[in-house]
Write a structure and sequence with these properties.
Blueprint: H1 6-19, E1 23-27, H2 30-33, H3 47-50, H4 53-56, H5 59-64, H6 66-82, H7 87-99, E2 106-110, H8 116-120, E3 126-127, E4 130-137, E5 143-145, E6 165-169, H9 178-190, E7 193-197, H10 209-215, E8 219-223, E9 236-238, H11 242-249
Parallel strand pairs: 1-2, 1-7, 2-3, 7-8, 8-9
Antiparallel strand pairs: 4-5, 4-6
Helix pairs in contact: 7-11, 9-10
């Protein structure tokens, strides 16, 4: 049984969030939707409604046409640079501050590559899918912040070794950064509350993190206007936008 009636669900979620000793949060594209950044699977505006992932976000695509891939990332980088964090990002940064009195009280992992959590003030953040803000050397793995520019033509070159650099994101068919994933798994296993926000919960291994919390006896709260495969496992579901639900969770904090 889970609660979906919004008022009582909100009340129940608020109680759980305030009482939790260890919260682990995972976010997806939905939390940035209200900052004007398209999600991946939205039927009308999502990236994957317009492109096939394997044509743009795969090692094969990059091998075949690095400039085409860099052009696509240049556009996304320009869009996120112009976007602002919204009330949902801000509320998560505030939740971190409130939970920080307790060691390991708060953990945030994101599948997003847009850097909006950092810009909203989140301090501890694990980026499971990398980020748009850096390029990574194909040879020596050096990370270089991208300059504010409209184009990456030709593709950036590594200042350390002169090799070609690629976007610092995880592509289809690639592994997640092992250290980031290990930290996330540990945090979700240890958490008494998992908060799953704005993700379709379709892409592994991120989708499985909240199940680790459940398996170890914790509870799951889902914030998503739509139904996902995780919904049936969630103890509390808020069918609200992240920018509505997250600030509401912080209201009336003792
Ligand atoms: P998706 O596009 O798959 O899902 C976005 C989710 O956000 C959906 O479940 C929506 O219902 C929900 N949503 C939409 N607007 C919302 C709002 N205002 N507040 C809260 N939720 C809202 O995006 P992700 O789950 O993040 O991977 O996708 C996961 C991964 O798939 C991405 O990181 C990307 C993609 O392929 C890589 O590129 C490696
Ligand atoms: Zn290099």
């Amino acid at each position: 049984m889970n609660e979906t009636q919004t008022d009582s669900a909100l009340e129940s979620a608020r109680t759980h969030v305030q009482a939790a000793e260890r919260i682990a949060v995972i976010t997806g594209a939905g939390i940035s939707a209200e900052s004007g950044i398209p999600t991946f699977r939205d039927a009308q505006t999502g990236h994957w409604a317009r492109f096939r992932p394997e044509d743009l976000a795969s090692p094969q695509a990059y091998q075949q046409d690095p400039q085409m891939v860099w052009d696509w990332y240049a556009g996304r980088y320009r869009d996120v640079s112009a976007a602002q964090p919204n009330a949902g990002h801000a509320a998560l940064a505030e939740l971190e501050r409130r939970k920080n009195g307790h060691p390991d009280g708060f953990f945030l992992a994101t599948q997003n590559v847009d850097g909006l959590h950092q810009r909203a003030g989140s301090q501890q953040l694990v980026e499971l899918h990398g980020n748009l803000t850096h390029a990574r050397c194909e040879a020596c793995q050096h990370l270089e912040p991208l300059p504010a520019t409209d184009t990456f033509e030709p593709p950036p070159v590594c200042p350390q070794c002169g090799s070609r650099m690629r976007p610092n994101v995880v592509w289809f068919g690639e592994w997640l950064p092992p250290e980031a994933l290990a930290r996330a798994e540990e945090a979700f296993e240890a958490a008494d509350l998992a908060l799953v926000i704005g993700t379709s919960s379709l892409v592994q291994p991120a989708a499985g993190l909240a199940l680790l919390t459940l398996e170890s006896g914790g509870i799951v709260i889902e914030i998503n206007p739509g139904v996902t495969p995780l919904s049936e496992w969630a103890s509390v579901i808020l069918r609200l936008r992240a920018s509505q639900a997250l600030p509401a969770l912080l209201k009336g904090w003792a």
